[in-house]
Amino acid sequence: MTESNGSDAPAGRTDRTERVHQGEQTPDWEKRFRAPRVSLPDWAEDAPDRSLFVSNATGTYELYAWDRSTGEQRQVTDRPNGTTDGVLSPDGEWIWWFDDKDGDEFGVWRRQPFTGGPDELAAPGLDASYPAGLALGRDGRTAVVGRSTDEDGTTIHLVRTVPRAEGAEAPTEPVAPVEIYRHRESAGVGDLSHDGSLIAVEHTEHGDAMHSALRVLRPDGTTVAELDDTKGGTEELGLEVLGFAPVDGDTRLLIGHQRRGRWEPMVWDVATGEETDLSLELPGDVSAEWFPDGTGLLIAHGFEARSELFRYDLAGPELVEIDTPPGTVSGATARPDGSVEYLWSSSAQPSAVRSTSGEVVLDPPGMRSPGSVPVEDVWVEGPGGRIHALVQKPEGATGPLPTVFDIHGGPTWHDSDSFAAGPAAWVDHGYAVVRVNYRGSTGYGRAWTDALKHRVGLIELEDIAAVRAWAIDSGLADPDRLILTGGSWGGYLTLLGLGVQPDAWTLGIAVVPVADYVTAYHDEMEALKAMDRTLLGGTPEEVPERFEASSPITYVDRVKAPVYISAGVNDPRCPIRQIENYVHRLQSREAPHEVYRYDAGHGSLVVDERIKQVRLELDFAERHLGTKTEMETKTGTGTGAEAGKQG
Prior knowledge:
Blueprint: E1 2-5, H1 11-21, H2 28-34, E2 42-44, E3 47-55, E4 62-67, E5 72-75, E6 86-88, E7 94-100, E8 107-113, E9 120-121, E10 130-136, E11 142-149, E12 153-163, E13 172-174, E14 178-183, E15 187-192, E16 199-203, E17 213-217, E18 223-227, E19 239-244, E20 252-257, E21 264-269, E22 275-277, E23 285-290, E24 296-303, E25 306-313, E26 318-322, E27 328-334, E28 340-345, E29 352-355, E30 360-362, E31 376-382, E32 385-392, E33 401-407, H3 421-428, E34 432-437, H4 446-450, H5 458-473, E35 477-487, H6 489-500, E36 507-511, H7 517-523, H8 526-536, H9 544-550, E37 563-568, H10 576-588, E38 593-598, H11 607-625, H12 630-635
Parallel strand pairs: 1-38, 33-34, 33-35, 35-36, 36-37, 37-38
Antiparallel strand pairs: 2-3, 3-4, 4-5, 6-7, 7-8, 8-9, 10-11, 11-12, 12-13, 12-14, 15-16, 16-17, 17-18, 19-20, 20-21, 21-22, 23-24, 24-25, 25-26, 27-28, 28-29, 29-30, 31-32, 32-34
């Protein structure tokens, strides 16, 4: 058994420097992580030349301000473990960013002038919490701040500043925040209307954390309108806030609904109660946002692991496709000039921020990320219906190959035809990679997403087993060299699968997993407790048999395969104590395992740290399967067993 801990200066940086000094070229898999990348820029509603984006240009993901009129970019945040949660005020004057401690997701909002300057508390008077939504007013003086704590559940506060006396050092001063909403169950701020008179809230007061209802409040906390498709929690139909119309005095709210078995947009006039069903007749999940003039909608359609964009003109009505390459649009926004900017990638091509005007919007300087191989679509009959899997393998390779089943997190998420450095690293090292959109995944209709309730984890493993059988029978996968891996919920399914299906897997690599479901429930953040109560039908005390059946630690004594686990010591989602419980059980029976702990939360925003973790995973597989790394294949040298003992 090997255990290691991350150092203050991640070992990946030292390793890379040593390799460069020795004249060794950086491998493609590492370049994909190091290559600078950017998010889709957000822009200020009333100052559209001012934008905010996230980049890893310094080696850590941080927030950046971008003045499009001058081209000037500057780094806004600079923290050891990175920063990605930021909001630009509609007037373009302020950047709000969430300040937690080392990735624990518990903290306060701070703000900084767009042009630079010292940070200040954005909402004095509000204690630290988990964030539960934020909406900023166009007047530059109003904010709606959502908070979540174990003690209070969800609270929502109106935060305002007032002008200071003439000659004061700062133009405004804060007044005490006013609480306008409180409930034990999960809720969050959806949006603030264009004129600041209406606040949309998503809530789960009915107790179903997977299907929200909507309430619209005035700034004094009184209710304007309610919409609840769950009918008090008796039906599994959710709603979501997509945004108020960007017009003063307009009471139309764009929302998402599931009334026809998938996510679709609808316009709800919260003043009159009128609902305008768009009936777009697209087969997959559909989301939308307003064009800036309020006359049309930007439609994003996701279907079978790919996505496309449309413009929907409300006056027509007319749906017109926007030309985008085949692949995945991870985000899109309509600009005041009518153009659309979008973040696009495919499994073979790295992400880029493009515009319908034909230009690349934001092109980070420095190293270009190498591409990878395209995915192949596979459909497998499973116990709950057809299962969609995405397969990548080394170019020109024929099976049977060592194969990695890389299981996505969520669980309400899905793998898509988008660029991912992790799977590409495995492909570079000679592995086939199979990603399974099991029952519980989004993108295949509400029934597919909601199917995992009560038999949590076991449902997903049935689908993974069906795809595993296909991979072996088709000649793709070597049954003696099968790796089960994943992060977060995928890490949970990895540990559960190693115990429930002990003869199916050669190795397991679990990243920030749930390992002991009962302990995880008691230690995790409040919003996830609510989700677990929904998934399992109650608390561990109310439904102990379900928690036991779905917990990896129940089956730990059946695990046969060597196990590698990595965990963030500050993780509020998959807390460290429950992982230690599982590790102690492995230790007690001297089961082969390795553990790597690092000083961050639910994953790392530091590029060197992420590279170090992938290197340790590749090394673990090499030592146990006898596979050769990309470096060894090309140069005749290996990473060696000592890689697992860094830190």
